[in-house]
UniProtKB/TrEMBL annotation, chain A:
Keywords: ATP-binding, CBS domain, Cell inner membrane, Cell membrane, Membrane, Nucleotide-binding, Repeat, Transport. It is a peripheral membrane protein. The complex is probably composed of two ATP-binding proteins, two transmembrane proteins and a solute-binding protein. Residues 259-315, 319-377 form the CBS domain. This is Quaternary amine transport ATP-binding protein. Residues 6-240 form the ABC transporter domain. Its main location: membrane. It catalyses: a quaternary ammonium(out) + ATP + H2O = a quaternary ammonium(in) + ADP + phosphate + H(+). It comes from Secundilactobacillus folii. GO terms for cellular component: plasma membrane. GO terms for biological process: amino acid transport; glycine betaine transport. NCBIfam families: proV (TIGR01186).
From TrEMBL, chain B:
This is ABC transporter permease subunit. CDD domains: TM_PBP2. Gene3D superfamilies: MetI-like. It is a multi-pass membrane protein. One of its GO terms (biological process) is glycine betaine transport. Signal peptide: none annotated. Its main location: membrane. It holds the Pfam family BPD_transp_1. Residues 25-205 form the ABC transmembrane type-1 domain. Belongs to the binding-protein-dependent transport system permease family.
Length: 394, 216
């Protein structure tokens, strides 16, 4: 059996006084993963993270790093192997940036020359000028300070980095550039990151695996895509937020979810007369042609019937077999453009065995675009009206 | 002498007793400094300890506060009962009075260190001793220095009354003046250097305090 890089088994943390902070938490983390622990305050996410470098001691359960139980390791040595970035940055105000970056190397008694080289390397990594090495933290802006905070956690070649809401105190623009930075560093250097946040956007954009926590328990562990597509329960849904779910819909919705299932269809052996009657009853101007097993064969529209009514008798004689169709499990995101570009009024949807399962109409696409732009709630009606008219005018 | 005004008398006194005044100045300075130094050696570790054990903090500071409220003359006399006349009694008194500002400032300085720095330090793998040496003490040094500065000024004042138990120092000159008829000049000859010593030491330590302040 393969040993996980970091595995947590049945962790519990109960504070004196009986408050349960973490309740039966189990998780395996592979090397190179970017794991976001997300939840409301008091959900136990920080507590869980702090147990990994033994800043807190679990009440029960085991944590294994590279297969070794960390409770058997010297906490000081363990922490020197794990990068640690906190919300308040925590740069030492009485040390220069150089000294700050090389705190852990110094604790590990690296030779001075190696530390100097590393400091230079590190400051280049976060795109700050080398002159900064001799400045003090108070001479740097908050964003620059946290950049140093991040490389300080990398300076001694730590493989695992713990980050506790590191960007919580920064303005949105600075936060975004730091998110790009850590994501880039993480993938480039192959680090494993455990990142605590309460910001869903942050988690969705950074994580390869999101762990949603509430009240000390795991609600869901999944990739960002998966969590948007299938929130495990109402709590996760609320945490993601209605707006985000709607915005994410075009990118993660499958055709199957938006298609109409009552597509008007007919078999090839039917007479044109019958086809015309079906059209009339269903009030449509075209029909999809399927065989008895519901396999999509082609389509027929009112012009074909009108033109061939005298000469042909069965639907099979006049149908077009060059029908454009989409798979029901393909993403709307990928298909919507193709549908619109080709100018079809509607497109049949088939399953993996080429059986007709539904139809996507232009009206359904309008709904998706509309939802993505305005949301499906009570946002200004006049806007909604004008967009519909605009759509109709095309 | 009567034909000279006060300042002329003072200058005359210094001219004739210069080496004596200097010797007493020296003695006064050393008594004060020894007392404060011993208090620092004892008080700073106590301050560090109680900063980490907040339950003890109230008790220890309370005791130091009680010591501070005893009038210095009374304290001198009480200690004299045990240690007899002489320099040692004054040094012990200075030591006791210096404890409060030193312990209190050490405690405050240590507590005022940003907890997130301690969190960061521990999280990076510093041992308790390293945390103390690399983070806590450097960051509280200026507050500790302020305590020492207070203690030194206090000590110079207390040493001045040490003359009553025969310890010598500039207090000797002041008492000589109060005992003499028309001794104003002699009083000044003792009092001025005492004040000067306090002012200079205060200024020097104030400068050091600023120097070690990491936030400046």
């Amino acid at each position: 059996m393969k040993i996980a890089f970091l595995s947590m088994e049945h962790l519990n943390k109960t504070y004196s006084g009986g408050k349960v902070a973490v309740d039966d938490f189990s998780l395996e983390i592979e090397k190179g993963e970017f794991v976001c622990l997300i939840g409301t305050s008091g959900s136990g996410k920080t507590t869980t993270m702090r147990m990994i470098n033994r800043m807190l001691q679990q009440t029960s359960g085991t944590i294994k790093l590279n297969g070794k139980d960390i409770s058997e390791l010297d906490p000081v040595k363990l922490r020197r192997k794990i990068g640690y970035v906190i919300q308040n940055i925590g740069l030492m105000p009485h040390m220069t940036i150089r000294q700050n970056i090389t705190i852990v190397p110094k604790l590990l008694k690296w030779p001075q020359k190696k530390m100097d080289e590393r400091a230079k390397e590190m400051i280049k990594l976060v795109e700050l000028p080398e002159e900064f090495l001799d400045r003090y933290p108070s001479e740097l802006s908050g964003g620059q300070q946290q950049r140093i905070g991040v490389v300080r956690a990398l300076a001694a070649d730590q493989d695992l980095i713990l980050m506790d809401e590191p960007y919580g105190a920064l303005d949105p623009i600075t936060r975004e550039s730091l998110q790009d930075l850590i994501k880039d560093l993480q993938t480039r250097l192959g680090k494993t990151v455990v990142f605590v946040t309460h910001d869903m956007d942050e988690a969705l954009s950074l994580a390869t695996k999101i762990v949603v926590m509430d009240d000390g328990k795991i609600m869901q562990v999944a990739s960002p895509d998966e969590i948007l597509r299938h929130p495990a329960n109402e709590f996760v849904e609320n945490l993601i937020g209605k707006d985000r779910l709607i915005q994410a819909r075009p990118s993660i919705t499958t055709v199957g979810q938006v298609m109409l299932t009552n597509a008007a269809s007919i078999t090839p052996d039917k007479l044109l007369k019958e086809a015309l009657k079906t059209m009339h009853d269903r009030r449509v101007d075209s029909l999809l042609v399927t065989d008895d097993a519901n396999y999509l064969k082609g389509y027929i529209d009112i012009e074909d019937i009108d033109y061939n009514f005298q000469t042909a008798t069965s639907v099979g004689d006049v149908m077009h077999d060059d029908v454009f169709y989409v798979q029901s499990d393909s993403l709307v995101r990928d298909t919507v453009e193709r549908i619109l570009k080709r100018g079809f009024k509607n497109v049949p949807v088939v399953d993996s065995e080429h059986r007709l399962v539904g139809i996507v109409t232009r009206a359904a696409l309008v709904d998706i675009v509309y939802d993505a732009l305005w949301g499906d709630d009570d946002k200004s009606e006049s806007k909604a009206d004008s967009s519909q008219q605009g759509g109709a005018a095309q | 002498m009567a034909h000279m005004n006060l300042w002329e008398q003072l200058i005359y006194y210094y001219a004739h007793n210069g080496s004596y005044v200097l010797a007493q100045f020296n003695r006064h300075f050393l008594i004060s400094v020894y007392g404060v130094l011993i208090a620092a050696i004892v008080g700073i570790p106590i301050g560090i300890y109680i900063a980490h054990h907040s339950k003890l903090s109230g008790v220890v500071i309370g005791i130091a506060n009680v010591i501070q409220t005893i009038p210095s003359l009374a304290m001198l006399s009480i200690i004299m009962i045990g240690l007899g006349l002489g320099v040692n009694t004054v040094i012990v008194t200075v030591f006791l009075y210096s404890l409060l500002p030193i312990i209190k400032n050490t405690d405050t300085g240590m507590r005022n260190v940003d907890p997130s720095l301690l969190d960061a330090g521990t999280g990076m793998g510093m041992t308790k001793t390293q945390l103390l040496r690399l983070v806590e003490i450097p960051l509280s040094l200026s507050v500790i220095m302020a305590g020492l500065r207070n203690a030194v000024v206090l000590a110079i004042g207390i040493t001045a009354i040490g003359t009553f138990v025969g310890a010598g120092g500039l207090g000797d000159i002041i008492i000589r003046g109060t005992n003499a008829t028309n001794g104003s000049a002699i009083i000044l000859a003792g009092a001025l250097p005492t004040a000067l010593m306090a002012i200079i030491l205060d200024a020097v330590l104030g400068w050091v305090e600023k120097k070690v302040d990491p936030t400046a």
